[in-house]
Amino acid sequence: MKLNKSLLSCAIAIAIAMGASFTANANTETKAGSTSELAAKVSVSSIENAVTVKQSFSDNTALVSQDGDGNTALATEIGNNNDVKIAQLQNGNYAEVETTGDNNQQTYAQDGVANGFITRITGDNNGVYVSQFGQGLFQNNEAINIITGSDNNIDVEQGNGGHWFYNMDMRGNGNEIISSQSGMWQEFEVLSLSGDENIIEIEQTDTWNEFKIGSLRGNENEIDVSQDGSRNIITFTDIAGDDNEIAIEQSSGDNNTITFAAVTGNDNEIKLDQEGSNNAIESGLFDGSFNEVTVNQIGDENLATTELMGDNNELTAMQVGNTNEAYMGVIGSNNEFTVTQVSDFNSVHLANFNGSGNDVDLSQSGGDENAILVQSSYPDVSLTSNDNDIDVNQVGNQNEAIVTLAGILDSNANQIDIAQNGDINVIDLMVEGSNHSIDIAQQGEGNWVGGTGDSAFLLGGENVSFSVTQTGNYNTVEGNVIGFNSTFSVTQLGDGNTATITQM
User: Fold this and answer.
1) CB of 334 closer than 8 Å to CB of 342
2) Potential cystine with 90: which of 68, 160, 168, 326 (Cβ 3.0-4.6 Å)?
3) Cβ(351)–Cβ(378) under 8 Å?
């Protein structure tokens, strides 16, 4: 966060220094092309105020009221039926308006110290309503709009404190930006909005909130952001596509961050909600069509990372607790992922690359320090992994489930169902081949399924059915199954049992 937002400070200082010279231009009788009875009606209540009004063509209206010292208002209207109202109170206020087109309407009100406002509008039927009130933090409130297009509607209200509002170089039709900032230190920035019928609504309350969008392109995008708390940050960079809808809410917490690097595609819907403190949502890629991402984090120090490339993907992550981590990534089509973590220090890592039609449901509930890792087509991303159905449920503490769909063979149509109930249960699988059906259930604590030594349990071939049931404590199944049309089943009841399987 920058402590000195002095974008307008030089202009304000110059306006104060040259206030006496500006008053000479306030003669309404010399304004050519003004036919309205209210055209350039000016009221000045102090000696250091300056007003400059320029109007061209017909039926333009400018109403300026200034009270205090060092206020400056400059208004230029080129077109017809434009209406500008400016009211400035107290000291060091600055307003500069330039309107080109017809039927534009601007209304400004500034109350406080060292407030500043700049608007340039090119197009028709644009409406800008700005109200800055209160003393600016570090003597500086700002609102800047540079608009090109038609039917844009901008409504800005900034409360007591230091506020910054920018939406520069807006292009397109039917755009609407509504912002309400209240507190001590808010910042809202939209730099370069292009497209049609975009709607952005932002409400930031309390201190040190920040929202930024860099280059939003496309049609019918709708973004709704609400931050309630302190030092929350949301950053978007380069959103492109059609019919995107993003809704973000960070409420009643501190230091929550949401960062997007790029969103490309059509009909994407992203809903993000964070409640607590020090939560983070990161993503470097949304690419494709019909993607839907929903992330909800309740607690403190949770991290969620999502990446999408492909079509018809749906990712849902909910983390309730503290210091949970969820990573999801997909390249492919028709994937659906669901992650639910309840408690503390749980981790889910899902990287599903080069696959399609996967349905994965992961749940860790009621325990701490559980870990799930599912990797598809890893480490060779040229491999395909299709039609996998993986369901993992872990209840207890320090359980670990590792499934790797990779290797020299394609991994297609796998069904893996894992349930662990207890503490310190471990499953390590490397699956290769096609048409597998794997069912593992471990109940108790200290149960383990894996390869010999520290290696993973290897399954290879076609049409392999693998089932392990362990009830009790500290039971072990190790080995590998490689072959065609194989069936393998192990059931262990009690404690301390060991089964070693080698099938080629």
Assistant:
1) no
2) 68
3) yes
Q: How crowded is the C-beta side of 103, counted as CA atoms within 13 Å?
A: 8
Helices and strands counted in the chain (H then E):
2, 45
In which residue are the tokens 């969620």 written?
Answer: 304
Report the relative pairing of strands 336-342 and 359-365 from DSSP bridges.
parallel
Prediction pTM value: 0.79
Query: What six digits make up the tokens of 164?
Result: 């910054």
Q: Do 232 and 249 touch, CB atoms closer than 8 A?
A: no
Tokens of 383: 């491999």
Contacts of 90 (CB under 8 A, 6+ apart): 67, 68, 111, 112, 113
Element (H, E) at 126: none
Kindly tell me if the per-residue pLDDT of 7 is higher than 50. Answer: no
Calpha distance 177→167 (Å, rounded): 9
Q: What is the pLDDT of residue 87?
A: 82
- The DSSP annotation for 256-277 comes to -EEEES-EEEES-EEEEEEEEE
pLDDT score for 45:
54
| Straight-line distance from the first to the last Cα atom of the chain, in angstroms, rounded to the nearest whole number | 62
Distance CA 354, CA 498 (A): 37
Alpha helices (runs of H) in 56-114, residue ranges in sequence order: none
3 state SS of 362: strand
Res. 471: pLDDT tops 50? yes
Task: Evaluate if residue 345 carries a pLDDT over 90.
Answer: yes
Q: What burial class does residue 460 get, using C-beta atoms within 10 Å of its C-beta: 0-12 exposed, 13-18 middle, 19+ buried?
A: buried
Instruction: For residue range 145-181, list pLDDT tens digits in order.
Output: 777 877 878 888 887 766 777 777 778 788 888 888 8
Two structure tokens written together for 428? 């390590």
Give the angle subtended at the CA of 49 by the CAs of 43 and 51, to the nearest 5°.
65
Distances (CA, A) of 282 to 118, 142, 166, 260: 34, 29, 24, 6
pLDDT class of 379 with cuts at 50, 70, 90: low
Cβ 431 vs Cβ 422: under 8 Å: no
- Name the helix (H) or strand (E) containing 404: strand 400-405
